[in-house]
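Order emerges. One example.
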Amino acid sequence: PSYSSVIYHHLRAGELAQEMKVEGEVPSHAVYEMLIRGCTIAMRRVGQGEVPDHLTSNMLKVVMRLWKDMHEMERRPDYWTYNELIRAFGKAGAVPQALELFEHMCGNVRLLPEERAFNSMYEMCVLSGNYAAALQVFDEHEELRKSLWKPRYTPVSFSLLLAAVAREGDDLHKRIQQLPRVLALMDRHAVYPRAEACEKLLSACIATREIGLAAEVMSLIERVGQDVDPEIAARARRTIGEGEGGAARSLDEPAVEAKLERRDSSNS
């Protein structure tokens, strides 16, 4: 049997925690964290537009029983158990519950999230297609960095934020406006998008006709020396050129109209 099935059968029967109770021991925070993590490992991640399968649904129920059991055993959940619960919610596709739990953490000094919790939230939002929610988490991240807490960013954070900004969707035009903010933050941390990420950013800028953003990404590519797909780069340059040409024509229109008016006056 797989490790997932072993974990599942033990937890479903309540054997691990129950045996400790029989021995007169109260499971510690670390035990609850490991049990919740075991449930999460056994789950199958719920993707965008999917519903959890039978095993994942049951594992989430076990997680909630463990959470309730913690309170009954007077084991006040700490930051680590909250983080494990967020990961379980995220993998099971319970996005609203994870967002609510995360909001609670942000409002409690004892539970303030650091990079692990933020990355768990970014991952959940991106993999479930909740890109706008990932950017809301980004706003919260930036607000906390104004305090003494200052939760760090990691390369994983930036990779997931770029995905949230540039993935296809009805609100792409709105989300892509956050790109300069993310790129400026990455630059301050000396972290730069990989070639594949740059290609996706260019494609998003072209799709939304964001000429200025496309030019900014091209400038970044040239500055850091990324070897991107020549075809995508050529399309970006054409788009930028067309946009700049259109802007130049718009600037020339008043001068052309004035010239035509002077000509008409002299003819009359």
